[in-house]
Design brief:
Number of strands: 6
Number of helices: 4
Low-confidence stretches: none
Helix content: 25-40%
Structural class: alpha+beta
Strand content: 25-35%
Order of helices and strands: HEEEEHEEHH
Shape: globular
Radius of gyration: 14 Å
Distance between the termini: 27 Å
Length: 118
């Protein structure tokens, strides 16, 4: 999987913005200013995704390319290598889960705003 595919997938979600708040190598995707995906643009390329704590541990045990979130709260974030043999459809599903998890913690007003734009 390549970084442009990840970027295109993330940026096409409702109310998503992209920024470089940390450095010029880490592209951050946010929904209403809440991070759901961090994309490392330099080799080895990877993404950080938010995850339910129990699911995060399960994914790490099942997939060699999934590790605790680099520079993140390791209870809630995983780092996924884009060079691993994890199928793209799984990575897209995990991006969706991260986005949905962040959206579920938004205020009711912001969630309703998202729903009205679908």
């Amino acid at each position: 999987m390549d970084v442009e595919s990840v970027r295109n997938y993330c940026i096409n979600k409702n109310e998503v913005t992209e920024t470089f708040p940390f450095d010029d190598e880490t592209l951050v995707f946010k929904v209403f200013d809440k991070m759901f995906c961090l994309l490392n643009l330099t080799p080895p390329q990877s993404i950080n995704l938010k995850c339910e704590p129990v699911k995060a541990i399960e994914l790490r045990e099942l997939h060699e390319g999934v590790e605790p979130g680099y520079h993140m709260n390791k209870k809630h974030w995983n780092t996924i290598s884009l060079l691993s043999n994890i199928p793209e459809d799984k990575i897209y599903k995990w991006i969706d889960n991260s986005y949905d998890l962040v959206v579920s913690n938004l205020s009711k007003k912001l969630r309703e705003c998202l729903l009205s734009k679908r």
